[in-house]
Amino acid sequence: MPISEMLYRRPFRPVQGFLILLFSLTLFLTGFSLPSRAEITIGRSFDTAPIVLDGKVLFQVSKLREFSAKDRAKQANDSLAQAIRDFAAAQDSPGVPTVKVTPGALPTLRLADRHLLTVTDRDVMLGQDAMEQAVGWQRTINRAIATGLKERTPSYRRQAILKSGLGVLLAILLHCGIQWIRLRWRRQQLRTMQDTKRPLALLGLTSLQLLVWVGVGYYICELFPQFRTLLYLVLRSFDEPILILKEQEQGYGIVDLLIVVGLILGLWVIVRGLTLLLKSRILPLLGVNRGLQDAIAILTQYVLTGLGVVVILQVLGVDIGALLIVGSALGLGIGFGLQNIVSNFISGIILLLDRPIEAGDFIKVGELVGSVEKIGTRSTELRTHDEVTIIVPNSHFLEKEVVNWSHSSPVSRLHLPVDVAYGCDVDRVQTALIESVSHHPEVLAHPQPQVQFLGFGESALNFEVLVWFREPRQQYRLKSDLYFRIEAMLRQYQIEIPFPQRDLHVRSPHLEQLIDLLVQQRTENAPHLYYPDSVRSQPPSQPILASPPPSPQPISRPSAPQINLPELVAQMKGEQGLDIQDRRHRLNIYPQCFVGSEAVIWLMRTQRATRKEALRIGRLLMRKRIIHHVLDEHPFDDAYLFYRFYADEQQE
Q: For 408-460, what is each residue's pLDDT tens digit?
């Protein structure tokens, strides 16, 4: 997958549009302001100021004693502008006004017998003297004056108007052409029944149309000196310092800040692409699991972004120490409003380093249950069984109890409460429950399922079935499947499932009197019994005792499943069995052996056992002298240790 596709594979969001527009605005402003800038580094120094004529920067002047550079430049700019207006208004004046140099310790420039500038030692470039600098400024100003007077002639204005009309006509044609391309592309998308919502492509075409009109507008402004001056003033307003550092005597304008933002945005896009490449191509080749991939990618993104920002600011000539002072002052003011964001950010760092949860884990936090899709800087994406993505702040995972079924080992135990009616044979109940859950393919055979008698309920005997399974995400479906099997097995064994029962006791004095009266009437009318000896036999003086209840028989518990060792050994040596081959360790070769960790995984998969039970099976094979460590130095363990069968040694 290309990097650009990976970067924009998600649906378009307003934030992305804002960033793209911000980047375009940065290029627009910086591109127009570059001709008026004397250096590449950002930030304006108060030691120099530009000399400008008709919106064109001629050169820079420095401060002189009590006069600041800005005051000197303002006086010279006003004089040049006034001189141009005077000579342009006086059309009958012969020749073109020129600047003259008056030599001296500090040469001066004069225009029409008016003082214009004084060349100081600070104005002189390296390797020149003051007189050479004055002569160079003289030539520059004279060329600018001649060009300004030429641009104010009627013939030049007619040519400029014609060029402007041609530029507007060309812009209209380009605009219509781009619009035709847009409509044709959308028709083709509709004809092929593809997704027509491609915001990036549409935004690119719209930006191209905007760029055409901006370029034509800039071209027209450059043709006319009045428009060029107005454009310079507008762009210069963006370059005026809004952030002033008195310690450095330097200020930063809107353009400077946009340059920094644009470069940092470009850095973010590059780092984002590198981290996606690292996560999707490099780390999988190294066998890194998904959770560790996200942690490495995010930490790499933080480190590269931080280092890149520092490098960009240093290259642009920004003093990091001064920015830290400003940042600390701003941080103190907005810290209270951003404390939740900072808390979630720090929590995200802790989650990445401590790794209590990882991408792909099946967890429960509060009332939310789902799989962790992504751990971000501020929040974590949790996908539920309903395929709904829930955004959870990172601080919740540190402040609340989190149940992580996938942590360390995904093997878990499932509890299934089952109630049966009083009078049922508990031995048959246990047999039915064990039989109903033991044959499910997702229930592990080691450890075996268990049935616990919890007690006597109000209307039922309470049992609980305990089974082990390997996939926590499937616990709800597995629970439903097992309940279906349990209900069918209880019906097969004719075990009654109870329903709530209640005894009703009615107490009423009138009702009791009525019952006594009815009993008395029936007694009076009852027939007299005939006794042969005319004597009613007396009840025995001692009560007749019932036969004692039989002693309770112990309930037969189902025994642990017996392992057929010969069959297991045959499976281990079969085609779908262990990888048994000659292995080399250091300078030794061990023939016909297998790795202990691979054997544990194989036993877990084929015998439906947990890791603990797989180790127990392997150690049972060692006690039966079926397998052993190649050097007889280790028991059976889940490690990179070599084991082999005794039978293979006898064949050798």
A: 788 889 999 999 999 899 999 999 999 999 989 999 988 889 999 999 988 89
DSSP 8-state assignment for residue 484: H
Please state, for a pLDDT cut of 90, what percent of the chain lies above it.
24
SS3 485: helix
The beta strand positions in 19-63, using DSSP E, are: 44-45, 48-53, 56-62
| CB burial string 382-403: b at 16+ within 10 A, e below | beeeeeeeeebbbbbbeeeebe
More confident of the two residues 4 and 174? 174
Query: What is the C-alpha separation between 641 and 652, in angstroms, rounded?
Result: 21
DSSP string, 168-181: HHHHHHHHHHHHHH
The answer to whether residue 539 scores a pLDDT higher than 60 is: no
Q: Which domains does the chain have, with CATH numbers?
A: 44-151 (no CATH), 353-404 (2.30.30.60), 412-492 (3.30.70.100), 565-651 (1.10.10.10)
* CB contact burial 420-434 (16+ within 10 A = b; e otherwise): beeebeeeebbbbbb
Top pLDDT among 17 and 255 is at 255
Q: Model-level pTM? A: 0.51
Q: How far apart are CA 486 and CA 466, in angstroms?
A: 13
Report the relative pairing of strands 642-645 and 588-595 from DSSP bridges: antiparallel
Which phi-psi region, left, alpha or beta, contains residue 426 (left: φ > 0; alpha: ψ -120 to 50)? Answer: alpha
